[in-house]
Each structure stands twice: as C-alpha cells, then as structure tokens.
Amino acid sequence: MPYPTAFLSQPNACWPWLMCVGLALVLPFSTVAQSRIIDDSTKQVYSAKTVRYYLEKDLEFGHKATTYALDTLLDGFHRYTPVQERGFYYQDLGELATPLQPIFYDIQQQVGMLYGNDVYSPFWFTPENVRYYDTKSPYSRAHYVQDFRGDQFIDFTLSRNIKRNFNFALQYKRMFSNKQFGLTQSPEVRANQHRLVVSAAYLGKDSRYSGYFHYSHLVSEMSESGGVRFSESAPDSLYGYEQSEGRLSGVRSWQTYNALHAYQEYRLTKPVVLFHVYDWKRVRDTYTDVNVGANSATFYQLFAPPPLLVNDTTLEGMRYYLTENRLGLKGRLFDDVFYYQGYLQSRFYEWQTDYVRGGLTPRDTLDGIGNLSAMLELYVGGKAEIRFGEEFQLGAHLSYGLNTPDLMNKVYARWKGLEASYLLISHSPTLLQTRFWSNHLRWRNSFSNPLSQELRASWRQALANEALVLRPFTVFNVTSGMIYYNEQALPQQADELFSTLRLGAELHYRLGRFHTRTTAIYTQSLGADLFRIPAIWATSLIYCQDCFFKEIISTQIGFDIHYRSDFFGQAYMPVSKQFHLQNNFLIQAYPLVDMFLSSQIGNARLFFKLTHLNNISNEALTGYAVSPFYPGKRFTFAFGFDWRFYD
C-alpha cells in the first residue's frame, strides 16, 4: 500500500538518519588497523590502483573473476541524468527519477513469465551491475550533483576488506527533482527516489568455495501529471512550464523493489564446479488519485475507460513475489579451451492485485480476475564456449521450459574486432499483459508466446595508434505475435510481423588534444507499426583534453550534442506504468546542446555544465519534448563532484 509520503516528500528529511548510519559504519572502520602496502621508502601507497572490483557475470565459466580498475577518467563524467548516463538510449518524462523507456526496440532476453512493469527496472541494483570489491584499505566515494532548478543526485559508496578474503560494501543513491509544470506551489516535488545495496564477497582460504551476496532496495515516489494540458492548435503552449497545467492533479504513484541475491560455488575438482544461484524479489506498485472526477475529464476519458468502481478516490496496488533457484555444474577442460555449464532452474512466483478503497472489490472477485499464487516454472539449460586466448570465442546458450512452452537459444562468436550473435526466443507474456484490475483500466487476456529472432554484428577497427577508432554495427530483429500497448493503453497481440533494421557506427577521432566521440544510428521499421523509433538518432561529444593548466590538473572542455528526428513516440500511462502507442503528438526533431568543463585534481573530479545551451535565452514558449506531452528541461547550470578516499 502507499509508501508514507511525509518522509519522502521532504527533500532533506532523511539526512539525520543517513548521517547516523554513515557514522556508525565509518567510525568502527577508522579505528581498526589495516595491513599496509609500502614502497621502498616505506610510504603508504593507497590509491585507485589498490582497489579492484568484479562482476558476477565474470564468474560464469571460470572460478576466478576478472577484476576491473575504478573509473577515474573524465570521459562522460558530466553525464549524470539517467538518460545521459545511459548514452541517450532511453526517454523519460523530463525530470530526474521519472520512468524510463528504451528508444530502440530490443527483444526480451529471458524466458519465463516476468512481471512486466519495467519503467523503473533500469534503476534497480541487479546481479549484472552490483560490484564486489577487493580493497587493500577502506575505500569510500562521495558523488554529488546539483542544478539550479532543484534537481539533485547523490551517490555514496563504502567498501572494506574485513579480512583478506572477505569484503563488505554499501552503496546508496538518491535522486530528487522538482516539477517543471502543473505546480500548486513553488517549488514542488516531482520525483524522489532512494536506492541502497549492501553486498559481501567471500573466498575460502583454499579457494575451493566462494560466495557473493547482496540485498538491494528501491523506493521511487512520483507526483503524476499526465503531461502538459495544452492546445493542439497552439503547440508552443507545451512550453509554458510554471504557467502550464498538468492533465492530472492530486495523483501519486510509488514503486518499491526489494531483492536478495546469493551466488555460491564449490570446486569439486578443477574441471567440475558446483554452483547455486538464489534470488528473491518483491515489487510493490501503488497508485492514488484523490481527484478522480476532474481527472476523468482531462485524462482518463481520452482512453475509453471502463465504468468507474469509485467516483471520488482511487487507492490501489499490486504486489509481485519471485523466488528463483538455479543449481548446476560448470567447469573448464582441455587447458581452459573449452568451458561448459549445465543447470536446472525453478521460478516460483505470486501476483496480487489489491483494490483497497473501502474494500469495494471482494477478495473472491480479485481472485477471479487473475490473482496468482504458488505458480511454478521449471527450466533446464546449458552454456558452452570455446576460447582460444582473447582473440577468438565461440559460444552458445540454451534454456528450455519443462512445464512451459518457453525456449531460448543464443549463439555468438568473437574474433579480434568482429562480433556476431543470433538469438531465438519464445517467451511467455508478462503478468501485466495478461491481467490488470484498476479503477481506470481493466483487462484479462490469454496471449500466446511471441516468437522473436535477432541478429547482431559489429566490427571494431583501430588505426593510427587508436587515434581513429571506427565501429560499424547492425541489429536486425523480427517478432511474430508481438504484444504491445495500443492507443487506448491496452495490451494487444499483433497478427502481423514486427521487424526493425538498425544501421549504425561509433567513431572516436583524436587530433592532438581535440577529441570527438560520435554514435549515429539509422533505423527502418520493416513490419507492422507497433513500436515508434526515430529514423535518425545521433549523439556526439566534442571536447579538448588538457587544453589549459595541463601541468597542474587534467581538464576537458567541450560540447555534448544529441539529436533525434521527429517521430510519434510512445506515451506514458501512469495507471499501469506502461508506455503505449499514440498518434496525436509528434515529437519534433531537435538538437540538444550542453557545454561542460570537467577537471581532475588528485582523487577528486568535478564538473560545471550548461544544460540545454541552445535555450540560454529562456525565450518564452520554446523548448523540446522528451516524450509526448512532456517537455525537456530548460536551460540551467549544474555542477558536481566525485571524491574518493583510500584510507
């Protein structure tokens, strides 16, 4: 049910609690003696070079993980928003911590009936992005960003080796943004998001056993606006900002996500390793509307909704639970040339819809429209890879449903700069595509499995000692029976094939101190019109490296440019938290230009940034749209720093 708003709606309410937790964690660590690394002059040498991290995916075939160095470069450091951080491959609703939708269509990579509410999943801590550290001294990092329109980003990391073979780490992230339009007071909170992950890694003294564990939490609260209420005869009225009204008022939504993950393996012999992966997840979504009557006229009635169950107030939620286990064997044979893995996987999930307004929907009615309990899926799968050094890999991955019609088969090859892969997958519809019960939208569907195929290829070429790096690539996919959300924001299964072709290239060119990093993509939809993609998409970093003060500090100064051609992009439905087709709002082509200055001084990095520089005049009724009915951010100034401590 709804997350307490009194705590989340106050920008600084959590700071006393966070400071207490931080001091409780840091002070004990500061009093414990650490083993020291010394050079010939007996000076302490703790730095970024003495901190390494690794990811769980690197344990897939080998027993020891590949370790990575900390990213201390200035490249892309000024990109702090979720869209910028992900290379502009997503669209959001114009402010920090708002729902995300991929710009390009990529087919589902996982078998099984998934939850299907993915607009906040890019923010989740998952086994793919949780870092496990190996530190020679206590390591901490503080990252802070603020802009002059109230957006705020905080990222704090703490890690320490309790023993040589046991590491503990904690990471906390917070994003906060103010409304750009639809204000009842100034300033007014738009979105407030907190994320936390606590992780631990243990390697047995004889290196036969290793375990990696983490618990993650997310709570994301948003004041829903439904987009700007503007006149189609006067499209520039979209950019009235504080003077513009939203299509919804008195509406809030939440998502909370909790996950517990454990990966363990035990080496029986060198070629045979027993492994087990455990996952428990809980996702809760809540939607409240205390102004149903007025909002029906300005928003809900646009989608031909079913009759209201309650005329004045909506208070509803969904809960999804998943317990997943994977048990198998893996190993390396023939002098590490051949890698193998075989496993048995179970997925045990529950899904509940709660319409809690006065208990107006009886439990037996909710059960009848699709509450699920104790649903079990079983899969058998395997992976194999042939590897000759680092230049050639050939691999395959197969997953087959024992009590479901799901199937996934992937093959891939890498040779020097060439990479290619082929994916075939038949997966179950998501839970939300098959059933949904709300005061404003309701459906119950019986869809068949979509069948998708995808081919990817790329070729990286480096010339003139990496002064010129070119990587052309292509992605072709085709799906039969695709399930999408139509113009009424309802799920529908297509009879026609859906297919897209992407042709793109990445270019990095260096001439002296001047650099350009550019990615350009052309996309052509070849089948049914079920997912809208801009035909031309490009982003470019143009900067000068160490053009001044080069003897004292490292600097970058330049421009960050993003462009996409006009298209009828997917609109956002806050009731179901889904993006859907629409035909009434054309997102106009627009070049977005930012100017930045980044510098590195010792263990600290900082940047100053002029966001949306081509709107510096703040001329009235000008701007660009990031999603239908949602304007992008106006010109503003932002700054941020990143400071690392190694003792």
Task: Walk me through the structure.
By secondary structure, the chain is mainly beta. 6% of the residues lie in helices and 51% in strands. It has six helices and 38 strands. The strands form eight sheets. It has a 22-stranded antiparallel β-barrel. It has a three-stranded antiparallel β-sheet with strand order 2-1-5, with no helix packed on it. Strands 3-4 form a two-stranded antiparallel ribbon. Strand 34 and strand 35 (604-611) form a beta hairpin. The longest helix has 16 residues, at 15-30. The two termini are 43 Å apart. 34% of the residues are buried. Mean pLDDT is 88; it is low at 1-42.
How would a crystallographer describe the biggest sheet? 22 strands, antiparallel, barrel
Rg of Cα set = 26 Å
Low-confidence stretches: 1-42
Shape: globular
Q: What structural class results from the helix and strand content?
A: mainly beta
Kindly report how far apart the N and C termini lie. 43 Å
Summed over residues and divided by their number, the pLDDT gives a mean of 88
Could you tell me the number of beta strands? 38
Amount of beta strand = over 45%
Helix share, percent: under 10%
